[in-house]
Amino acid sequence: MCERLSVINSSFVTIVLTCLVSFSFAAPTKPNVVLLVSDDQGWGDVGYHGGEMSTPNLDQLAKDGMELNRFYAYPICSPTRTSLLTGHISMRHDIFSPIPANLTIPHDEQLMNQAFKEAGYTTMTAGKWHLGMTHVRDLPINRGFDHTYGSLRAGPDFWTHGRGEQKDWARNGKTVFENGYVTDLFGNEISRLIRDRDPSKPFFSYVAFTAPHTPLQAPQEYVDKYAHIENGDRRIYCAMVEILDVAIGNILKAIDDEGIRDNTIVIFFSDNGPTTVGDSSGFRGQKGLVYEGGTRMPAIIRWPGKIPAGVRSEQPMVVYDLFPTFVEALDLKTNLNTPFDGESLWDVLKTGGKRERKTDMVIGNGTSYSVHSGDYKLVHSNINRNTPNSPPELVELFKIYDDPKETTNVADTHQDVVEKIMVNNAVFADMVRNAPFREGRRGRAARIARGDGGQSGRPGVGTAGGQGEGRVASGGRLGGPAAGGRTAGGRPGGGAGAPAGPPIARDTDGNIIHLHESLPRG
């Protein structure tokens, strides 16, 4: 009898333990997070804003989620990416413009993905990094990502995956040789990682697409769909946005196929406003400028059952609010050396409401800054004291809700508002005022054309495809950029004397040793 009882008890314990183990694997993990960031996509370059390109997946995402109608980013790529991953105003880290190859974001600041990794998340990124590559420690694989894929710099050729002779294409820090159009490859990579993940762990995915940034390149069959558009560059641009939408659709399908839609937060936004080939829907300015056309972004967030669907939120939000918002919504632990500049907006996102911000929204570039404060927006331009032959300083104030196109400057009649905003944000104004001067490629090209001299770096700098400054011929599979250029400074906005970059390394057979493999080590 005792032996029978012993067997029964042992079997019972085994069944209980089996059930507990099964439950532990079946229980939902913490919410997954997927950030989908496009590059140089304008407010009007999505179907749900009336765009002429086909974006059915983004249109559906807007229906299934919440459209963030007043979401702001920086007018240039690296500052937006810095603010996204740090939760800080980018000027705190001396990043005012596209980051030169010899700089990186600080190593003593916790990045968003590092906070997720420390919380037990699998972290993955695909796309462009553009936040430092001087040293191996600066690569994304060494900055808190478990899986990395894509390019380190801006604007790789969409077909050859390089810049001139330098290949800029790697997986987990190792150069890979692949065929394919880069936008497709980014979407495929993240879809594969989602399907192959460890389902017992949540994941954080940062997908930094390079489309529709230059070089303007797309498969001919997509370009032909926009033959009715007279401007050849615009045809290619629309095709690039459509392929971007397809890649996003692939990622969203992987989420659905894995049955994790309800437990996954998806956020989409563009990193800055468009160049002249894009559509800012009548907002003033474009990429590089702190007016609405350069900073007000198409943006969506979806979290089924947690965030209301089919809602258009009017809550003002800036890119550096995302990190603190995740911290509150997901109970993430942080280890910050510098407190967040952003504020958590989880309280309004989960209700679809709107409230007054606790902080102003500050956005800047190398010469100007803007501040959203209550009902007003201040734009203070041409204040960099290191800029030669700078135009006169300009102070503009707009009642931004009544005047979203920024047509009427009310600074003269609201001097008290101007003074208050300037006093409250003087520290950031000083950062812009003292930023080292960085001459843009157009400026250098103009000087050289006038015979004013000056070097444009190593051969190929300033040709089509760099930072949106070049022009390319119309067509389908177009030629990519020449070798990528160096900036004129040793830091963002820096003066003369930046290194020209390492020489192109080759093996004994004469094959190019690609960019990631030729970085300095040690």
Structure, explained:
The protein is of the alpha/beta class. 27% of the residues lie in helices and 15% in strands. The protein is built from 13 helices and 19 strands. The model is unreliable at 15-27, 444-507 and 509-522 (pLDDT under 50).
Give me some keywords for this one.
single chain, 13 helices, alpha/beta, 522 residues, ten-stranded mixed sheet
Quick structural overview:
The protein has 522 residues and is of the alpha/beta class. It has helices at residues 2-26, 56-64, 77-86, 112-118, 182-196, 220-223, 232-257, 292-295, 322-330, 346-349, 415-424, 426-433, 441-450, and strands spanning 32-38, 66-68, 71-72, 122-128, 147-151, 162-163, 166-167, 170-171, 174-175, 203-208, 264-270, 296-297, 299-302, 311-313, 317-318, 361-364, 369-373, 376-381, 394-399. It is 27% helix and 15% strand.
Q: Please, what is the oligomeric state?
A: single chain
Low-confidence parts: 15-27, 444-507, 509-522
* Total strand segments: 19
| Rg computed from alpha carbons, rounded to a whole number of angstroms | 24 Å
List the helices and strands and how they pair.
Elements: H1 2-26, E1 32-38, H2 56-64, E2 66-68, E3 71-72, H3 77-86, H4 112-118, E4 122-128, E5 147-151, E6 162-163, E7 166-167, E8 170-171, E9 174-175, H5 182-196, E10 203-208, H6 220-223, H7 232-257, E11 264-270, H8 292-295, E12 296-297, E13 299-302, E14 311-313, E15 317-318, H9 322-330, H10 346-349, E16 361-364, E17 369-373, E18 376-381, E19 394-399, H11 415-424, H12 426-433, H13 441-450
Helix pairs in contact: 5-7
